[in-house]
Amino acid sequence: MTAQNRLLIKGGKIVNADRMFVADIYIEDGIIRQVGENLITPGGAKQIDAKGKLIMPGGIDTHTHFEMPFMGTRSIDDFYHGTKAALAGGTTMIIDHCLPQKGQSLLEAYEDWSARASERACCDYSFHVGITWWSDEVKKEIEVLCKEKGINSFKMFMAYKGVFMLDDDEIYQAMCILKEQGALALMHAENGNLINECCKKMLALGITGPEGHELSRPEEVEEEATTRAIVIANQAQCPLYIVHVMSKSAANAISKARREGKVVFGEPIAASLGVDGSHYWDKDWKHAAAYVMGPPLRPDVTTPGYLMDLLANGDLHLTGTDNCTFNPDQKALGRDDFTKIPNGVNGVEDRMSIIWEKGVYTGKMDPCRFVAVTSTNAAKIFNFYPKKGVIQVGSDADLVIWDPNATRTISKDTHHHAVTMNIFEGMVCHGVPLITISNGRIVWEDEQLHVTQGAGRFVSRPVHAPEAYAKILIRDKVRVPVGVDREAYDGPVWNSANAPANSVSKAAPKQTQNQDRTATRHGHRDLHASGFSLSEMGPRYKGNQVDDNVKSKVGHKVLAPPGGQSSITF
Asked: How far is it, in rounded angstroms, from Cα 35 to Cα 534?
């Protein structure tokens, strides 16, 4: 065994989601072997002095789209450029989206994505598989992916009509199958039908620039779809994960559902936490188009801070990036029509710094919560904890040594993406990854990458993640619908074949006495002319009243009305 396979990190403060403590870490063959003080370790290990620094689990980005075919082109960050950018930012694992074309086999798409990732990825990875169409074949392939391929999460779309979008009944059927398999349903929540009509409306008004993107996908279409997805998932009793939460109202819908006991998770992203949608109205078309993504960033400048508050306090749960990058010439496919601008932004390299800057540096969350929302919660929800997401004996040696006092300025000129734009351009971030360790190897140090293309490993994820299914499996036992035990009905049953042909009488209604009375000189009904007659009520009454035999009084004296005595006589 060589010293290259051994690392000893000394004197740093370890930050896990539940606590912080000072200790040394000994790593061997990519696994954390010891954690504590005064460790006795084999000789020859490379030592790292982390005194005064924080040692945290490597970040896990739950939402990327590397080299994805989309809107007439392909995202420019492939698995090599995307994962090396991730490592430079302190992220040591990504979960990419494998999205079949409509009608394409899910297994075929999975094998294609898997081949490209295994050849080029520099860090560990896994996949969400898209359900972009529905059939009996898709049902069978979901089972194979869950049982044989290590996939436990499936992405569906309520938007991108004609490309990825499913109808509500298809979503419900898919969720029922996912529930049977113990998988997690991911949802892109926007009302695709409304968006389609709103796009036509904006174009008809002559609005063709990037601002039309946000105007055609307003916040309420995200809120409505989020609520609808929650309802459908609750009916299927399937755990739900809402990807890229972009608005206050969608976040509130998730928070409300959780207070009602529904199993739903919310994922804001680096973009929705770090910038706002005012950029869509920038005079520079290239600048404005760089921010086009779906759902769009919101023009309400208070939205990022609001989402960070919910993330810090547990109403939202973890962070991804939706990293799906396109260069300006690719965005220019929609130069005359905003509906043709490829949707997507960067984020995989800058996510950790942005969350620290907007969350920890502002005092909204502590370092433990930072670890939870950038790493631990992802590992738990997607069921590979404690393999990753925690620093403890036996876990993978995926770590980041963090300097909370250092600063860096984000720029397209220094980032490690293939894309030539950066939506966080010029942002100064407090909190910098000094060293990134992936599978026990130093891959980022002194602002230099030391990566090997294809070194990343696929992470298999078993179904029935406790974080998603613990409550649901109990509810399956205690909330079983029960019918009413009653005697069978044995009475007559109406039969339309036996109904009379003219069962409804068409006779004219009898005209009452007052209908033919003359009107007053003003043309109104004469209210003094009454058609009421006791004699018409039958022989029992004979035109008499019950008190006809009582002698009438001359007057009535009011003795004590309210307000005092009176001698008034009526």
From this structure: 102
Buried b (16+ CB within 10 A) or exposed e, 260-276: eebbbbbbbbbbbbbbb
- Which of 555, 472, 460 has its CA nearest to residue 149? 460
Pick from 409, 405, 390, 401: nearest CA to 433? 401
Non-local (6+) Cβ contacts of 474 within 8 A are none
- Look at residue 422 and give its three-state secondary structure: coil
**Residue among 231, 233, 225 nearest 193 (CA):** 225
What is the spatial distance between Cα 429 and Cα 357, in angstroms, rounded to a whole number? 5
- Rounded CA separation 278/155 (Å): 29
Burial annotation 390-413 (CB, 10 A radius, 16+ → b, else e): bbeeebbbbbbbbbbeeebebebe
Q: Rounded to 5 degrees, what are φ and ψ at 90?
A: 95, 5
Cα separation, 111 vs 120, whole angstroms: 14
Task: Identify the DSSP state of 514.
Answer: G
CB distance 254 to 242 below 8 Å: yes
DSSP per residue, 320-371: B--B----HHHHGGGTT-GGGSPP-B--TTTHHHHHIIIIITTTSS-HHHHH
Tokens for 295, please give them: 């759902």
Rounded Cα–Cα distance for residues 211 and 202 (Å): 10
Q: What pTM was estimated for this model as a whole? A: 0.87
Please say if the pLDDT value at position 249 is more than 50.
Answer: yes
Which pLDDT value is given to residue 554?
55
Distance CA 322, CA 19 (A): 29
H-helix segments, 237-327: 248-259, 270-274, 285-290, 303-312
Element counts in the chain: helices (H) and strands (E): 16, 20
Alpha-carbon distance of 535 to 283, in angstroms, equals 88
pLDDT band at 499 (very low <50, low <70, confident <90, very high): confident
Is residue 506 scored above 80 in pLDDT?
A: no
Q: Report how far Cα 385 is from the mean position of its chain's Cα atoms.
A: 21
**C-alpha–C-alpha distance, residues 336 and 185, integer Å:** 36
Strand bridging mode 69-70 / 73-74: antiparallel
Longest dimension (CA), the chain: 126
**Rounded-to-integer distance, Cα 497 and Cα 440, Å:** 80
pLDDT tens digits for range 268-314 = 999 999 999 999 999 999 999 999 999 999 999 999 999 999 999 99
Count of beta carbons in the 10 Å neighbourhood of residue 363: 8
DSSP letter at 553?
P
Tokens linked to 75? 């995202």
**Closest by Cα among 422, 396, 405, 438 to 87:** 438
Contact (Cβ atoms closer than 8 angstroms) between residue 56 and residue 88: no
Task: Find the range with the poorest average confidence among 224-238, 468-482, 497-511, 512-526.
Answer: 512-526
Identify the helix (H) or strand (E) that includes residue 168.
Answer: helix 168-181
Q: What is the pLDDT of residue 570?
A: 44
Place of tokens 């200790």: 23
377: number of Cβ within 10 Å: 25
pLDDT surpassing 80 at residue 559: no
